[in-house]
Amino acid sequence: MLGLVSISMAQNIEFKPFTADVTISSSGSMYGGTQTQRWYITKGKKRIESIDYGQTTIIRRDKNVIWTTNPQSKTYLETHIDPNGQTLKSDVSQTTGGVNPSDRPVGTLSGTETIGGQLADRYDGGNSSSYYMHGTTVPLKIVTNVGQMKIVDEFRNIQIGDPAPDLFEVPSGYQKEGDTIDLEKQQEELHRMMNQAR
To answer: Could you tell me the pTM of the whole model?
Structure first.
């Protein structure tokens, strides 16, 4: 049941590092299905292990870089992010679930609900509703609507505490694949080509 939450409460959000299993379900389109991930979050750093695809993404806001590792080939891609660019501000939300590891929850605090037996703060913004463990930055559920498609991220087996530091580094012995990608420049070039095609 939704309830009113004071502004002062909204200003007292405690950052908590955590580890969680994440189930991402999508419906309402030809791309519907379910995938599972393992998330590791600490201040300024995020690691997402894709259980289904065997790929790991490490986001280092402190280094303005994303590493995408492939355990099968023991290689990794490196992507540079402009610290003042939109991609880093949104923490690559289109590909990593939209949770900023060091920022406040995204959206406007609209009330509280019970999610999985826990009191959760609900934030609404744009086309999504996000539910965070009461008074913290730990997500419990994220619901996003994109056209006719609905995407639901559910966080389970949450463990509060800092993950091991080496989880946020490229594993020893991995070889860099190709040149470093500049994500902001890549996006600018794409926009330029699209404008020329009009």
So the answer is: 0.79
